[in-house]
Design a protein that fits this description.
250 residues; mainly alpha; two-stranded antiparallel ribbon; 65% helix; globular
């Protein structure tokens, strides 16, 4: 199915009623990147302290499946990848800021670990599915920029003792590596320009050693029987929307 999503193209217009907006696209695009657009909008537009963990777990899970397939098949796909990096790191900032309220929600720890795994998968495998170097550089830039926030996220959810501990260490380690490159090149890590940071990133690639951790791109196969409640909810919403559309068109 994921292979078909990457090989089949169509034109699709996404709703643009709420900020932040994704870039406007024209013409046919692979269904895989259209799905990524939908997942990004889902993450960006449903943030609340009473987080719908089931919704977000499904969203992150779909992204892991898509990115994993693109990486393993070495399918470099044209896409506004920086929007994905931005969305994931914004979500991590939200999870950190409201950790006190969110930690009591069932299965939040699983969602947190899956989010770490997804971001690590992007960081360690981006060369396999991102066709342009600028988008890869942008991811590393954002990781460096967010290094202190990632450390706060780790501490807020005690990720040092979780199944995502190694991947969390990979994210923080990458940020620290480039900070050291920046320190060596400029003698400082504060009050530096974006240009200086980007140069340190490009220079620091040669000495960076990271790899995908075992299990990062693994998931449980989808079983309809395990998702009956969610599927019934979806069916009710679809039926209600269909009735409204029928009334409005009549």
């Amino acid at each position: 199915m994921t292979k078909r999503l990457s090989e089949t193209s169509s034109s699709m217009r996404l709703c643009r009623q709420r900020l932040p907006f994704l870039p406007i696209t024209k013409g046919d695009r692979p269904f895989a990147v259209i799905m990524l657009d939908i997942m990004i909008d889902c993450i960006n537009h449903n943030l609340r302290t009473k987080l719908d963990v089931t919704l977000y777990s499904s969203t992150v899970g779909i992204m892991i499946r898509l990115i994993s397939y693109l990486s393993k098949s070495r399918t470099r796909m044209k896409y506004h990848w920086p929007e994905l990096w931005r969305s994931l790191l914004s979500f991590i900032r939200f999870l950190t800021q409201y950790a006190e309220q969110l930690r009591s929600i069932a299965y939040i720890d699983t969602l947190v670990c899956d989010t770490v795994n997804l971001l690590t998968l992007c960081l360690t495998q981006s060369e396999m599915f991102v066709p342009d170097a600028n988008s890869i550089d942008d991811l590393f830039y954002k990781i460096v920029e967010s290094s202190s926030q990632l450390a706060g996220f780790r501490d807020a959810y005690a990720l040092q003792r979780s199944s995502a501990a190694d991947n969390m260490a990979t994210l923080i380690g990458a940020g620290e590596h480039f900070k050291q490159s920046l320190q060596a090149a400029n003698g400082k890590t504060k009050n530096v320009s974006p240009t200086e940071v980007m140069k340190a990133i490009k220079d620091g690639y040669e000495t960076l050693s990271i790899g995908a951790r075992e299990g990062t791109d693994q998931w449980h196969p989808y079983r309809e029987a395990d998702n009956k409640v969610e599927l019934k909810k979806i069916a009710r919403v679809v039926a209600a929307d269909a009735r409204l559309l029928g009334l409005s068109s009549g």
